[in-house]
Specification:
Protein name: Type IV secretion system coupling protein TraD DNA-binding domain-containing protein
Number of domains: 2
Strand content: 5-15%
Number of strands: 11
CATH class of the largest domain: Alpha Beta
Number of helices: 19
Oligomer: single chain
Organism: Candidatus Jorgensenbacteria bacterium GWA1_49_17
Pfam families: TrwB_AAD_bind (PF10412)
Radius of gyration: 25 Å
Length: about 425
Amino acid sequence: MKRVDRRRHVYIIGKSGVGKSKMLELFVRQDVAYNHGLCLIDPHGDVIEEILDFIPKERVEDVVVIDPSDRDYPASFNPLQNVDPEFKHQLTQGLIEVMERQFGANWTPRLEHVFRFTCLALLDYPHATMRGMISMLTDRNYRQKVVEYIEDDMVKRFWAIEFADWSEKFDTDAIIPLVNKLGQFLSDPMLRNIFGQKENKINLEELMQEKKIILINLSKGKLGEENSSFFGSMFITKIKQAGMARARMPEKDRHDFYLYVDEFHNLVTETFENLLSEARKYSLCLTMAHQYVGQLSERVRLAVLGNVGTIIVFRIGGSDAVILEPDMAPVFKTKDMINLGMQEFYTKMTIDGETYDPFSAETLKILPTPHGSLKKEIIETSRRKYSIPADAAKKLIAEEEATIIRSAQEKAIIEGKGRGEAAEEAVKMEEPLI
């Protein structure tokens, strides 16, 4: 497959255990061998384990391992830090879509309204973290501190006037559900130790341009399905932002960057749909895989089939074969797709921008790594550059929490004294003159 054609994206579908993961591994191995930059989002971690064994010595320093289940060295990933003002609203919209996916049918316009202004406020605050979202909604002292940094008058007005009224009247509808959902994620130490850090060592725009190998292990067995989906969707949102930022550099200076997403249906938001249509302009090449069409909404399915240049079909079920038959016609029929053997697939490719008739093929056998595994060295190197020890993360979070509590106590004392002095003055005014 030519590099230029991969900019039109690759869609892989097939039942479990038929060869999709091995194909992804082959793709990634080739990109590593040819010194390309890539990001692999793996919901199980198995492909990442194989890739870590394959990485050669000369690319050890290029690897960024992001594993939220690593309790010893949480990644320093703060999606709210150092966001270009040009992209604040785009990032906010992406974060809204992440939360909307988590809420499902319970998402409301009022929740969206409050969450939008929460994000916009924190993006102006230099010490913001994801944990700060809860403080913004529940802690008046923290909120007042953030408001001092807000640059947009409309955002400042919301917090100074509108929210002050809302928090009294609509806390059940507009505030408590957000606090509960954010608390669900941030109460988990694995995510809290990541999202509680102020520093962001994972600058995706730089990593993409420097051709780094980003491996994101979202093992649902370790993280849980909701945490895995939340973290992955958050990362996709940041990748889109980093991709859009590449529009500012001359096209000749943009290196192709390859994004692999296995079981991509778990991370689909409007941001992901937009990536399909816009990513090519930013030299961001998507390869997405999943098991069956029913995992996608009709809108997403149409967006995928309408935008990808290459479709790869392993063995699928009858209903999926009916849907995909028009794309495989006139060469292959429904019964052909149902009866494919292990490692066998049909593909319809775009070559030099032209679409050709589909043909059959088999995945290549994956050869043993020609060198010993450098996995331990890779993980240690990545931890040193992109993570901090868990004890350090816990200490930073505890110090921030203590500061917030101390500030609240001091303010309460000052206000208490003020009320006491006012009461004394009132008593004096009521005393009869002698």
